[in-house]
Amino acid sequence: MAMKSLSFLAVLSLLALTLPLAIASDPSQLQDFCVSANTSANGVFVNGKFCKDPKLVTADDFFFSGLQNARPVTSPVGSTVTAVNVNNLLGLNTLGISLVRIDYAVNGQNPPHTHPRATEILVVEQGTLLVGFVTSNPDNRLFSKVLNEGDVFVFPEGLIHFQANIGKGPAVAFAALSSQNPGVITIANTVFGANPAINPTILAKAFQLNPRTVVDLQNKFKK
């Protein structure tokens, strides 16, 4: 019995020693990369934002107004995304959350994209949306659903997902994301609008397209 108690105490001691190491893991990235600088002359950035002196913080640092207002939709894909993140609501710094409003024109869509640093939970405020996400290789399984007002759908972190307005009128959705700066990679813009451009031969083979078609697509997405 004494031997069992000793073994149990040994396990507890090991957990006590290793738990602080587990907690001290690296934080999640808040930007695409953070290359180390040998000297301050190379410029100093942090993985996040500098903190304001708490004595100078006001309620306005935690406040954003106007998200109830519809946004004009002028993009070729038929949607406008209004983000509330650490760049325009400074109090979000270090809190690991942000918000977006998405306005969809009739037949508009928020095209296939991914958030490299966040899971997204979306609720439909107005209209009807077809939404979905695709799992990673090799299965590439599509999970899709038609959402009406009040319906909620979750897009796991890093997976390609989309929303399309399939209703007869404009649509509105709100989404929360599990990062103060989730990032967004729109697949078509990234692949065909890269700067400098990706060699068309590479894309032609990847997408099984004629190189001339790839060049045409690249011209459409030139910034």
Automatic annotation (TrEMBL):
PANTHER family: GERMIN-LIKE PROTEIN SUBFAMILY 3 MEMBER 3. Residues 65-215 form the Cupin type-1 domain. It is found in: Secreted, Extracellular space, Apoplast. Keywords: Apoplast, Disulfide bond, Glycoprotein, Manganese, Metal-binding, Secreted, Signal. The keyword tRNA-binding does not apply. PROSITE patterns: GERMIN (PS00725). This is Germin-like protein. GO terms for cellular component: apoplast. Oxalate binds at residues 110, 115, 120. Disulfide bonds join 34-51. Residues 1-24 form the signal peptide. The keyword Signal applies. InterPro entries: Cupin_1 (IPR006045), Germin (IPR001929), Germin_Mn-BS (IPR019780), RmlC-like_jellyroll (IPR014710), RmlC_Cupin_sf (IPR011051). One of its GO terms (molecular function) is manganese ion binding. It comes from the Eukaryota. May play a role in plant defense. Probably has no oxalate oxidase activity even if the active site is conserved. Belongs to the germin family. It holds the Pfam family Cupin_1. Its main location: secreted. Mn(2+) binds at residues 113, 115, 120, 161.
